[in-house]
User: Fold Enoyl-CoA hydratase from Shewanella fodinae.
Amino acid sequence: MTTIQVHDTQGVRVLKFNRPEKRNAMDLGMYRQLTEYLIQGDTDNDIRAFMLCGSSDCFTSGNDVAEFLQHPDLGPEHPAVRFLHCLTELKKPLLAAVSGAAVGIGTTLLLHCDLVYADETARFKMPFVDLALVPEAGASLLLPRLVGYQKAAELLLLSENFDAGQANQLGLVNQVVSANQLYEFALSKAAAIAAKSPSAVQQTKALMRVGKEALQQQMQLELTYFGERLQSPQARETFIKFLQR
Assistant:
């Protein structure tokens, strides 16, 4: 079974997380596929926008804990690290359609999206501190920029769930639509962008996405701390309990 399904339509590359038996938990193979499809699409003139989605009941439950314990070295060639850096280099617009759980990377990767749509079932959580870890994907920089320091501290330090309505109020989500309309609605927005001048769209995105160097530096600092925390006794104990559930 292909864990990342790819479908090109109307100038949009749709990338769907497809690992239902693990609630779309991100393993190394999924990160490799995502990076490959994004890099290839970014150079393909027929692809003008990307859209990420999951299943109707789960966007992604986060990283595959077992695999990260087996591959704790978060160097530049680690598939997850390559994916994160790919997000910062992406020239074409990236959209997301979120149903159900969006946990960990399922929430933080949305900070790199240009437009995000969710349905009323969407639930978000950044449980890094609960797992004795630190944030990743530049969330420690991007989230305070988006929602302000105090709210970012609440979301990252308390690690509480928040729903689609709250995500909309925070600006993490552009619009909340009904579950039976989400996919087509998000795709229509991606197709609308794809129909516009590619150079104008890409230059506009580049103008808004300033401070890439600072973001990449922050991501590297996060990865350093994340790697150290990943091998800490507290994190390993938490992960073992998680895997034994």
